[in-house]
Structures are given as structure tokens and as C-alpha cells.
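User: Here's a chain of 116 residues. Predict its fold as C-alpha cells.
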Amino acid sequence: MSAQPDSPYGPLIPMPELTPDALRAAVARIAPSRIPALTQHLFEATTNAQQTQSLAPLRAFIHSWAVFVAIERHPGQAARLHALERIVGGGEEDPTEAITEIRRIHEAAEAEAGLR
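Assistant: Prediction complete.
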């Protein structure tokens, strides 16, 4: 993992290396209920990579779970994202501002994970 939390109010865990094992360990610490989804996604990515003889499915796996970890390791940010997703999914309000903020959260997470 790359860095230690910078304050008591910082991230729950350091940002892990972008490998399946490191991401799995991070998810096990911050969102253990998501391990089955990660395992299934990795299985599918590996199978697709083999069938297509391309690393693209594995890159997509790494990208998806790195962004997930980058967001979820900050509880306040994760809570805000989930609230915005409920607004978009609820269909009760105009989702334009929520979608814009979701996009910003994802872009910041991509940058934090070193994907941008």
C-alpha cells in the first residue's frame, strides 16, 4: 500500500497497489461484503482476457476496483456518493446536479488511484 493515513480524519486505509491481491485485501478491510462481487468480477475478467487474448478485461477490473477503493476508503465521500446515487435512482428530483457531482467524485478517485 502506498501511503499512511495523513490524519485521524484521513482515509481508513492507504491506497493499495493496483494489483488484484492488493485490491482484494483493501476491499476485505473496508467493505468485506463486496468480496464476492470482486471475486466474481475477477473470475469473469480472467476468463474474458483468456478468451479474447487481451488484457483489456483485467485492466477494466483493476480500474473499477481501484476507483471503488479510492472512494470507499473515505467514509464521508462514500456516504455522499451513495446519497447522490439514491437521488439519481429515485427519479423524484432532477438528477443533473447529482450526476455532475458523481462524475467529480469518480474523476477524483481515478486521480487518487493514479489512473488519470
